[in-house]
Each structure stands twice: as structure tokens, then as C-alpha cells.
Amino acid sequence: MAEQETTDGRRRLIRALLGSGFAASIASFLYPAVRFMVPPQVAESTVNQVSAGKADLKPNSARIFRFGAKPALLVRTATGEFRAFSAVCSHLNCTVQYDDEKRQIWCACHNGQFDLNGKVTGGPPPSPLEQYTAHVQGDEVVVIRG
Amino acid sequence: MFRRALDWVGNRAGLEGAQDFLKHKTVPVHSGTIWYYLGGVTLFLFVIQVLTGMLLLLYYRPTPTEAFESVQFIVTQVEFGWLIRSVHSWAANLMVLTALLHMFSVFFLKAYRKPRELTWLSGMALLLLTFAFGFSGYLLPWNTLAYFATKVGTDMAGAVPVVGRFLRHFLRGGEEVTGATLTRFFGFHVAVLPGLTTLLLLLHLALVQKWGISSPKRPGGSGPAMPFYPNFVLRELIGWYGALGVLGMLAALFPWELGTKADPFASAPAGIRPEWYFLAVFFTLKLIPGKVLIFNGEALGILVFGLAAVGWMLVPFWDNRSEDEKRHLALTGGGVFVIAYLAVFSALGYWR
Amino acid sequence: MTAIRLALLGALAGALAAQSGMDTCVGCHGALEGPLAKPAAAFEADVHKARGFSCVNCHGGDPTVLDPAASMSRARGFKGKIDRRATPGLCASCHNDATLIHRFNPRQRVDQLAQYRTSVHGRRLAAGDTRVANCVDCHGVHGIREVRDPLSPVHPLRLPETCARCHSDSDRMKGYGIVTDQFEKYRRSVHWEALSRRGDLSAPSCATCHGNHGAAPPGVATVVHVCGSCHVVFENLFAKSPHKKAFDELGIPGCVVCHGNHEVARPTMALVGVQPGSLCLNCHGESDKGRQAAAFMRSRIDELATALDGSEEILKRAERSGMEVSPALVELSHGRESLIRAKVELHGFDPVLVDGSVKKGLGIAAAAHRAGEKALQERDFRRKGLLMSLATIAVTMAALWLALRELERPGKKG
């Protein structure tokens, strides 16, 4: 009778609610999981290897680039060779620069000087600049650490 | 239509036996029934861990140079990476909590009585595996906190009498915590421990099905019970969905920290301590003086804890009164003492 | 009694000396008590002893005989206590000899005496003032250590207090007409902080600016070169700035006017601008081009600092709500470098120069701010997503509960 109909109706409603609830909740769990599995734009974390830009540096000049969280220095020597160093001065962490007249690396903060092997040749820095490997890949320079 | 598909699969896979069994399985109803859900929640959280863990495996790299960066990559670059990672970290902690609650509820309800001794033993082994999962997984992000907590934890293992030095060397993969430690912790965490856990879980669940859910003895035979399916299952689902909601809130509102990359040459930051479930033991060991009489303090502490754990594990064998439903005051008191001790010393370890 | 004691000790020392070939100066004086024993005791740590020298090399006498009358006889060259005016010449008798010194340290200088003679101390000593410093006042006398030995009184970390022994003693310095607060002031300076707290041995102490053997106060024209030997960029900027000519004409020393000499404090922007207390106002009056430049540079730098702080604040806010913003924070630190560069370029006193760095920094700050906003938007998106999934979860839980209730309604059949 009427009661049975309302009971049936209620049961159908509950069933519908349950079904849609399950479906919606499963969807809200599956959606992030599926999106997660799709590879992101940047394919992998760049921790040990970084592109330092195009290989169009003039000889006896340099450029600052970012390696991870810290600045790094890409130098093209007068003979055309590429060298890369950490640009963080070992004295008080200022960013170093290239001095094309003296052909050495110089820190403007307290006159620290480094040669093109990263070794300290003058001023207060207590230790050499970490040197990275740099080579040309196509028209880009790739710098590798460690 | 869904039902028809299910029936087709059940038919082909020969699941009638299982279906029959499930239809007839019952769950006792009494004041302690609410504790029965804890085992299922723990299992549910374990499944969550496996699923989120597998997803994280798509991007994680287990080497000192890349571990931290890969987790940072997951959390910043991968779509919903922050969610998967935070869910994984939070669910780990929740799982340890529910496992402990499950164990204590079984203890106080005396569900370890004959014939369920093996269920209890396999459950204790599963609890230890859960701790091992937590300890090994904690190191994987390779941040400062994890590195030093692992150092302290493996040092504690080194204080075990006789086998301590070997144990520490075995865990660390060497003398110090290094990339070798990371590699083997990773191997433990994603292969060895899941394999062992799966086997033990199958045993544990099979035994639970075989002996049914234990209930307090009562005059006049077994009391009221509810059908496992659908009543208990529906209730369990409510619990599981609640757990999902809690996990979602924790992950979105209290995301797990990335920390700073571990530097083995830096000095340990102040206040290094292990994860919360190791705090009570850690703090107790800190309090013990270096030498007690003629014994090494730390070794003595570990010995005492070890003996206590073994005693706890063997409770089905020396609780001779439970068969007759007689109260065992000392046992109950002991259980309360253990909970109080763990709570107080964990709190002390956290705030001191 | 004393004679008997001496004789007994002499016998003892002699016996020992005969056995080991020991120096009798050290042997006797080492066995004595009180002030007579101190030189021998101190000499144990002396660098000269380590190189094979002994008392006789400075004091003369005969170290092979026991009899004090013989070992300490003027006939055998014994000089006794060295007169203060004779000390520099005595030390130089070896230290001026390149061949000798370079046997022990080929790179050591041998011009200390010549330098000393040009110094204020040297000239006064030569004129008969025995209160001024000579070699042993700074280097120690019997326990002389190498300069790089941390216990040496002329080690960079101990040099200031050695100079201060005289220069901070107002009684001792009476009549010389110089202040005695240098050490006190220096101790408050950033240079001393670098030296003592950071252990940065390249930081200047007294000798770095005044010279050590040729100690003299730097003249007005040379002060900027002294500071500039480390602070190269500032010297170069200053040399090209309009202040250089003006200061030279007025006869006031470049760096010192604004930064002080002994009490070089950590500079703040309060020194710059047109507000009360700024140094620019000391010379620049109303409607003076310099005053306008000062006001402009100060306001631009303040603008950059505020922008950077604002960007940092929003990024930290995002970080606190759980967003990963470390790449943006790194970029922001480059903005802080621009701020430092702008403050450096202040020393060229050219508004255009300063403005260039400020513009660059403002660009970085703006980008960081945008990153912070984006992070907060992402956070809000996540919270909305959470709400949606919580809603589906709540609906499902409600449905489950309703289903249960339906199932377990009392009086229901099967």
C-alpha cells in the first residue's frame, strides 16, 4: 500500500544516494591518482645537471646562470674552452664575477681573487670555488656537478 | 547491471564458497563491539599506503644526491604530488595508531585466548613490521630530521647486548648512516617488508575467518550478533570513509613538511628525536644513567624493554584465568600501566 | 747563605750540565726562584729556542762555565739587561741579516728595523723617549712566539689588546696628544666582530691600517686607499664620485667622515637621506642638488626594501599554509642582492647608477610577489578540492548510515 510504496521509494532513494555517493567519492580519489601518474612538464628534477644556456659566449667572457638554488659562473676562456664554477665566494657568500682584463675570477665584496681553476690567488677567501664540468651539447652548454 | 557483472566473475572464479561463508559470518554485538572496527581500519590504511606508495615510486629516487630533490619534485611539480605524499605520510602515522589501538583492545577484551593464540602472535609480528615500515620509510626523504633520527635510532639498536654492533652495522649498511643505508632502507620498505607483511596478513586474516570474531563468554551461549554482510560491512565502510575524510583534511590543511636536505657533515640540530611511536623508549633510554651497577645503562634499558615486549607477546600463554572468564587484575593493571607509561613518556619525549 | 746556596746549585747544575751539555744560563736560572727564574721558564716556549738559539745570543756571556762571575762577565761579552733604546738594534743584528734569517724562513722579511725607524715609535725612541714601544713590548721578550701562533701577543686576534696596553692607558699616554679610546671603539666595530666572532683573519686590526713596524696614522689622502685595499669597489666608486674632489679640497678623509675609523659600525640607511640625523645634511643645504640626490636615492632604496619585504611576507604566508615556495624564495634572494648592489652604488653618489639596480630589484620583487599570489591561489584551489571530496565522503557516509538504518529497522522482515 502507501506505506510499502514510501518504503520502496525510500529504499530506491537510499540506493541511488549510495550508488552516486560511492561513484562520486571513488572519482574524487581516482582523479588525483590518474593526474599524478601523467608525467609533468619538467620531466625530472634538475639537481646534478643543468643547461647553462646557448654556447654563444665570446671567448674571454662569462655569464652567471642558476644551478639549483645557487648562482654559478660559466666562463669561456680566451682559448675558447668552457669552464663552470660555483659563483658563491667562499669568504662571505657574495656572487663572484669574471674579470676579463686580469683573466681571473673576482669577488667585488672584499677583493677576493680566484684563478681559472677556482683556486684562491688573492684576498680573504679561505677555500677554492667548486668547479663543475661543462661541455657543449648541440648549441647548448651543459654543466654537471659531482 | 553491476550485480550481473559481479555474478559473472564470481561464477567463473568459483567464489560461491567464499560468498556463502561471508553470508553466514556473524559479528557479536555488545558494548565492546566498537573495538572490532580497528583491525579493518588498520588494514584499510595499509592498502592506502600500498597504493600511495606505488604512486610515489613512479618518481622517487633512492640516492643521497637525488632523494630529497625527487620528493621536492613530487611535491612541487607533479600534479597532486603534494596530496599523494602527504596522504602517505599521514596515513603511516594513523596506521601505527590504529594498530596500537587494535592491539590494546584485543588485549583488554582478551581475544587472544585459546584458540586464537596464533592470531595474537601473527598480529604482534604485524605490529613490529608496522614499526619497521615507519622507521625505514622515515629516512627516505633524506632530510635533516630524518637523517639524524635514523642515526639516533640505529645507535639505539647498537646498544642491544651481544648482537647490538652487528645489528647496527646491518641496518646502516656500514658504520655510519650513508647512501648505503638509504638503499637498503628503501629495499626493506618497498620489497622485503611488504612481502613479509602480505604473508603474515594472509595468515592473520585466514585465522580470523577460521575462528570467527571472539566475544566475551556469557551464560546461555553466544549473545546477539549481526551478519557480517551487509551490516558489519556497511558500518566498516562508514569508518573507512571517515578515515578518508580525516586523511584528506590532514593532507590539505597540515601538509607534511619537506624540511632541508640532509648534510651529514653539519652538526645535529637541537632537539633531534625519533617518530612519536619510538618516543617513549627513546626518552626512557635518555634518562637511564650511563652505568647502572656494573651494567651499561643503555643496554640494560633495551634488555628490560625487550623482555617486557616478549612477555607481552606471550600473554596468551601465561594468562591462565581467561579461559574461565575470571578477572586477572594484575594483567589488566599491567595493561593500564603500559598504556600510561607509553603515554607519559611519549609526551615527555616530545616536550623535553 | 745566598752564596752557599748559589754554590750548591751551581754544583748541581754543573753536574747536570757536564752530563747533558746543557746551557748553564738556563740551568742556573731555571733552578732559581722568583723573578730570576721567569726568563728561563718562559724561554721553553720561545721560537728562538726551537731554532737552536739561547740566552747567550742576545745577552752574551759564556754558557759553558758554571761560575757566575765567569759566565756573566763583561769581558766575555755579557750585556746584562738590555737597554730599551738598544733593543731594536740588538734584534736587527740577526733579523736584518737576510742570509741568516732565510736559513730558517726564506720568505721572512728583513726590513723591520728600517720600517721601525720611520715609525712614530722608532723616531721617538731614537730621540730618547723610552716610553714608546720597541720590539719586545709587542713581541714579548723571553717567550717569543711566531705571529701565527694564537698565543703570540701579535697574533691578529690578540694584537688590538697588545696595542691597547699602552694606547688605552690614559696616564701613560699623557703628553702625546692622542686619544685613548681607540681600542674601546674598535671593540664595538664590525671589523673586530668579524675577527673575533667569525674568526675571519682577513678582517683588519690595528696593524692592517696603521702598519706594524712602520706604525703611523694614515694621512687624509691615504685613508681611502687603506680602506680600499679590501673594499675595492667602494674606493673605485668614490674616486669617480663628485665627493672625491670636494673632500680633497676640504681636507677631510673620504671613508672616515661617514663610517668612522676605529668604531666602524654596521651602516644603516639612517645615515643617508634628508631626515634629521642623516649625514648628508651635514653639508648639503636647502635646494642643493646634492640634497635632492640624497633624498631620491634614499627613497628609491627604501621602496625596493619595502617591496622585497612585502614579497617575502606573502611567500612566507604561502609557505606556512603548506605550499612549497622554495624556488620563489631563491629568486627573491637575488632581489636582495640587487638591494645590496644599490647600497654599494650609493658610494658613487650618482642617482642614475643607484636607480638602475633598484629597477632590477623591483622587477624581481614583483615576480616573487606574483609567485606568492599564485601559491595562495593554489592553496585555495586545494582547499576547495578538499571541500568537494569531503562533501562526496559525507554524502556517502550519510547514505551508508541511512542504508543501515533501513536494514535494521525494528520489525523488518528478512
Molecular structure report:
- The complex is a heterotrimer of chains A (146), B (352) and C (414).
- Chain A has one helix spanning 2-37, and strands spanning 49-54, 61-67, 70-76, 82-86, 97-99, 104-107, 112-114, 120-122, 131-137, 140-144.
- Chain A has 146 residues and is of the alpha+beta class.
- Chain A folds into 2 domains: 1-41; 49-144, 3-layer Sandwich (Rieske Iron-sulfur Protein), CATH 2.102.10.10.
- In chain A, strands 1-10-9-4-3-2 form a 6-stranded antiparallel sheet, with no helix packed on it. A 4-stranded antiparallel sheet of chain A has the order 5-6-7-8, with no helix packed on it.
- In chain A, strand 3 and strand 4 form a beta hairpin.
- The N and C termini of chain A lie far apart (82 Å).
- The model of chain A has no long low-confidence stretch (mean pLDDT 87).
- Chain B has a single domain (2-216, 226-274), classed as Cytochrome Bc1 Complex, Chain C (Up-down Bundle), CATH 1.20.810.10.
- Helices cover 68% and strands 3% of the residues of chain B.
- Chain B has helices at residues 2-13, 16-24, 37-57, 67-76, 81-108, 117-139, 144-158, 164-172, 179-211, 228-253, 279-287, 297-313, 315-318, 329-351; strands at 26-28, 225-227, 291-292, 295-296.
- In chain B, helix 5 (81-108) packs across helix 10.
- The longest helix of chain B has 33 residues, at 179-211.
- The mean pLDDT of chain B is 88.
- Chain C has 414 residues and is mostly helical.
- Chain C is 60% helix and 0% strand.
- Chain C has helices at residues 2-20, 24-31, 38-43, 47-50, 55-59, 68-71, 87-95, 98-104, 112-118, 120-126, 135-139, 159-167, 182-187, 190-196, 206-210, 220-228, 232-240, 242-250, 254-259, 289-320, 326-345, 351-407.
- In chain C, helix 1 packs across helix 2 (24-31) and helix 20 (289-320) runs antiparallel to helix 21.
- The longest helix of chain C has 57 residues, at 351-407.
- Chain C is elongated, with a radius of gyration of 36 Å.
- The mean pLDDT of chain C is 89.
- Chains in contact: A-B, A-C, B-C.
